[in-house]
Fold this protein.
Amino acid sequence: FMFVIPLVLLCSACSIYHINSEDVSSDFYYPKASINDVVYIENIQEKHEVIGFITVNTERNQRLSEVMQKLKREAAILGADAITDIKSDATGQWKKLPAQEIIGNGYVRANFTASAVVFK
C-alpha cells in the first residue's frame, strides 16, 4: 500500500502532451469543423496571413504523425486553413547537461512549434 500512493501521484503528474496556442490576429476566424479541414504545407506559395502560433510539448519518442494531429486540432480551433513552418527542439533537464556529445538524443521532452495560417 505504501508503494501504491507514491506511484499513483507520480504517474498522475505526467502527461504526454502539453498544447499551447497564441492567437496573433485581430480578425475572428470560425473554428474548422474537423482537423481534416487543416492541411500541412511545408512551403506556402499562396497569399496568406499568420493568425497564430502553436506549441506541442511532448515526450521525444512520440510519432510525428501524432504530433501533427495535435497541431492540426489546435489550428482548427483557431480557424486556420493550414499549418506550416514546423520546428522542433529539445527541452528539459537532459538538454542542459554539458555532455551532449555523449548522450546525444537523450533529452526527455521536445517542443514542436508551427504557424497557423489562413489563405487570402
Observations:
- Strands lie at 17-23, 39-40, 48-59, 82-91, 109-119.
- Residues 64-78 form the longest helix (15 residues).
- The domain at 16-119 is CATH 3.30.110.70 (Translation Initiation Factor IF3).
